Amino acid sequence: MIRLQNVTKDYGGSPALINVNLHIALGEFAFLVGPSGAGKSTLMRLLYREETPTSGSVFVGGVNLNRLHRRQVPLLRRRLGTIFQDYKLLPRQTVFNNVAYILRALGVDEKEVAKRVQSALSVVSLEHKGDAYPDELSGGEQQRVGIARAIVNGPPVLLADEPTGNLDPATSLEIVQLLERIAERGTTVFISTHDTTIVNALRRRVIYLKGGEIVSDVDSGVYELEPNLNV
Amino acid sequence: MRHLRIFFRVIIETGIGVKRSGWSNWLVVSILAIALTIFGGILQLTMTMKNVVTACGSQLEISAYLKDGFQPKRVAREISQIPEVQLVEIVTKDVAWDEMKSTFKVASLANPLPNTLHIRASNPQAVEAVAAKVKLLGAVENIRYPLKVARKINDLRHFIELAGFAITAALSAATLTVIGNTIHLLIESRQREIEILSLMGVSPFYIKGPFILQGATYGAGSALVAILVLTGVHLYLDPYVTDQLVSIAPFLAKNLEYGLWETFAIVIGLGVLVGAGGSWWTSGRYIKI
């Protein structure tokens, strides 16, 4: 579902990613870990085509993103659910409207919008908060709205860039368990994080990125600050 | 149906944008309305002048004013020999003077008017040839014919047109700047929202469309204001202008056209074009998707 071949990303002399090779299969759940500045966010941005690689190829759902025309980028992003550390909710829209926005922009009729939004909100247990505004919610609730928005269009891939970065440990665990439940329904979930607690609690595939290079890739792994090299 | 729903949502987003713009809506509409009113006024003036020119051009009559001491009948006979002349009518100085006295209060003076011949050419193309031949006659002091007047009006029209379009172009450039700044401010205030929408995979049409439609709305609104002003001015001035023109050239009573609807259509078109164009350019420049 996600494949990177010899990907290097260089920001004018300082490489953020160096010759990265990676494959994540359909329905897989994986963590991308590493210290700050390791290149996690850059790798995520390559996947939703916010950036393009300096060299190498990035494939998502069989599509080579290097060859994707600018006009086709929105089509790619509709097939990806993206979750962000700062939630990126529309502050002047209710929870319902935040989740409904993309469906309305795609011309889905209102009955179907209501049905799908309610369904997405019930997955994140926020069906009773539809009329609330983002600033009336806790950080954990806002992130759950972000997840509902990411899954409302039924994407095959869910990317989460530091989804627990602004949350306390207990809420972080709730969020990541929620993402795990979503993965069980067949969605590929790829989470970038530097939160050892959530990674170690779930014991799923862990890809360790350091200095722009993958130094470890372990199934059922843990996040150690100095990993054993086991690529 | 899906596209219709998307378009409907874009209109809703446009409404939200207009609401958020607050006082700057009025600023943009006022400036654009002033530009369009000036443009519309000049356009209407030049269109009216063009119609007057056309009406003058189709007139067949030439007036020849005779020098004192020449017999009008004899000169009329001479002129009627010209092949392109269809009819010659004599208005003696006494008849003209009586008519003038019956129309206006005239002081007791000696009759200053000349004997006049009204000459009708056989077709509009012959008017100038006949006028040239008549002017050469020794008995003729001066001649006047509508085509000659038309030329003068046409020269003036060209000048007004040129000056008017230069003023409109300058005002439109100023308006484009104001629209651009308003839309730019709106884009800046919604930058985060735009970023989020882009990351969600919302199409550029859906993101930029409301800004462009907002500009078009400004244009249409300004055009309506300009049309109201122009209609008011037209209703106020029409009787006066018509009287003046008809008194100069009586044949205009039947032919006078102001080109009002054409002016309104062009004003709306220009307003929407400037509004939407300014927004399109600004959103293209500041929204990077």
Task: Explain what you see.
The complex is a heterodimer of chains A (231) and B (289). Chain A is an alpha/beta fold. Helix content of chain A is 32%, strand content 27%. Chain A has seven helices and ten strands. In chain A, the strands form two sheets. Chain A has a six-stranded mixed β-sheet, sandwiched between helices. In chain A, strands 2-1-4-5 form a four-stranded antiparallel β-sheet, with helices on one face. The radius of gyration of chain A is 17 Å and the shape is globular. Chain B has two domains: 2-57 and 150-286, no CATH class; 61-144, Alpha-Beta Plaits. Chain B is α+β, with helices and mostly antiparallel strands and 289 residues long. Helices cover 74% and strands 8% of the residues of chain B. In chain B, strands 2-3-1-4 form a four-stranded antiparallel β-sheet. Chain B has helices at residues 2-21, 23-57, 72-80, 93-103, 127-135, 146-189, 191-200, 204-248, 252-255, 260-286, and strands spanning 61-66, 85-91, 116-121, 140-144. The mean pLDDT of chain B is 83. Chain B starts with a helix and ends with a helix.
TL;DR?
Chain A is of the alpha/beta class and 231 residues long.
What would you call the shape of chain B? elongated
CATH level-1 class of one domain in chain A: Alpha Beta
Largest interface: which pair?
A-B, 26 and 21 residues
SS summary, helix count of chain B: 10
Percentage beta strand of chain A: 25-35%
Strand order in space, largest sheet of chain A: 6-7-8-3-9-10
Q: Structural class of the helices, strands and pairings of chain B? A: alpha+beta
How would you characterize the largest beta sheet of chain A? 6 strands, mixed
Helix content of chain B: over 70%
From the N-terminal CA to the C-terminal CA of chain B, the straight-line distance is: 26 Å
Helix content of chain A: 25-40%
Shape of chain A: globular
- Reading side by side through the largest sheet of chain B, how are the strands ordered? 2-3-1-4
* Helix/sheet category of chain A: alpha/beta
Number of folding domains of chain B? 2
Q: What value does the Rg of chain A take, in angstroms?
A: 17 Å
Uncertain stretches of 5 or more adjacent residues of chain A = none
End-to-end separation of chain A in angstroms reads 20 Å
**Quaternary assembly:** heterodimer
Q: What is the number of beta strands of chain A?
A: 10
Mean of all residue-level pLDDT scores of chain B: 83
